[in-house]
Amino acid sequence: MDGILDAPELRWLEEATIKRLQEAMAAGELSSRQLVLWYMHRIGAYDRNGMALNSVLEVNPDALHIAAALDAERAQRGPRGPMHGIPVLVKDNIDTADKMHTSGGSRALADSYATEDSHVARRLREAGAVILGKTNMTEWANFMTRNMPAGYSSRGGQVKSPYGPGRFSPGGSSAGSGSAVAANLAAAAIGTETSGSILSPASSNSIVGIKPTVGLVSRTGIIPIMHTQDTAGPMARTVEDAAVLLGVVAGVDERDPATVAAAGRFHADYTQFLDIGGLRGARVGIPRELYKTLDAGIAAVMEAALEVLRQQGAKVVDPVDMPCLREKMDNVAMVHEFKPALNAYLGRLRPEVPVHTLKELIEYNTRDAATMLRYGQTLLKQAEATSGTLTEPEYVQGLTRGIYLCRALGIDAAIKEHRLDALVVPGNWGAGIAARPGYPSVTVPGGYTEEGQPVGVTFTAGAFAEPVLIRLAYAFEQATRARKAPVLVAAAAMTG
User: Fold this and answer.
1) What is the DSSP string of 151-210?
2) Active site residue: 103, 161, 169, 173, which one?
3) 91 is a catalytic site residue
């Protein structure tokens, strides 16, 4: 096993797409069990050793057996679908009813086991995916305090970017999912987003992230922040792989009314929208307000990306005025929704878990401040100070105002006025304007600064516009082939 990373016959697995892996398994050239072993070896070499990316919190102890069972099933009855036998990682705030914990990155839940699968985990298993492990994340999905570094948790420590460990931010809060996928520690991963937590790490780690319309993917069994905006979504190295994964996790869940309301808006196969010529004739808008604060390196990558859009036949409407970007918006609605949402989740945990309310969590953290409160818990305290009933005028006004501004004076207005297919923004700069109304975004690698920092190009539009966004993102990806795999260094090479 010592030479597995350098074995020429396995080198092709690096950057291999889900489709290519399926072809190899169908031809008998590869088994799911072999693939799980290969990814596990990489986790050992690069995540807990070598570059110490710290992106994977734990590995599923049943992964090899699950993979072997799926190999046997393939031989007997054929594959269930495009994810059969494919190893994926899931963020540590997504319940999995197995031998792995679900902690939200907090030591307070370090010994918490979910009593049932989240809807996302259940759909992954039903599709034949192998849940390989749980990824590290910004603690409580970056809703603990105001100055916590992206990708830091008391349980898992600091996630690092494989493109520049210690130099570039891994993005947050799905930092572990972004770093692990970028480093080829799994075929793909699931992240979650309330406002930027898929788009940020995807952009920061030069991978593809799809933040779906709220209601496209069930929220059941996911540690919440704000149910009005929370969603899970795929993170992968290619648009095609992300589209495959989206088709698996999207669907109606009777326990989640947002998905019931979205019935009829789902697609079982989002790869049908992949179109290499998808930019031809498209109209995309540039909200220049979001570009004003970019540093020179990122701005240069974005301007080159806009030129590619033009060359590929898109009409680039520049600038597009969005009054909402000049309005001051805060997170008051998020602060209010967090308490009842988290209390509901914590209240269902096993009796032996030490915290079952937000108040108990704050007290738990305070008792071990040296470990738990390295960066404080200002947001937790602010949330606890609310009534928990969502009756405060500042909550209702903050929620409705944010949705109104980002729809009527934001995305909806811009798309209608300029007859746009989508808006194009840098990385997660526009995450908030899409998050408040629950709108979708797709980010795709756009290039790198001279220092090697990854820059993502993000396409955003209105509710259930995933087919359009996937078409545009895929056409851009195929025209640029911008993603470059990070150069990983194992322990022996690092020590000489």
Assistant:
1) TEETTTEE---TTSTTTS---SSSHHHHHHHHTTSSSEEEEEESSSTTHHHHHHTT-EEE
2) 173
3) yes
